[in-house]
Amino acid sequence: MPALIIILIVVGIVCLLLGVFVEAVKFLLWLGIVILVIGIIAWLLGFIRRQT
Predict the structure, then answer these.
(1) Which of 4, 12, 13, 23 is the most buried if burial means most Cβ atoms within 10 Å?
(2) 10-46 tens-digit pLDDT
(3) Domain locations in the chain?
(4) Whether 33 contacts 12, CB under 8 Å
(5) What Å distances lie between residue 16 and 3, 28, 48, CA to CA?
(6) Is the distance from CB of 19 to CB of 32 less than 8 angstroms?
(7) How far apart are CA 39 and CA 35, in angstroms?
């Protein structure tokens, strides 16, 4: 499970950077943001569940 979360965060950052640097593919910017947010939320949920 943690490996999947790390992969989601990395893919999100890559898509975010590609969306910023390449004007023609603006949808990658939004896709990167969405994937990054999902990865961060998943990481937070896992972190919170480990604390309890």
Answers:
(1) 12
(2) 888 888 877 777 766 677 778 888 999 999 999 999 9
(3) 2-51
(4) yes
(5) 20, 6, 26
(6) yes
(7) 6
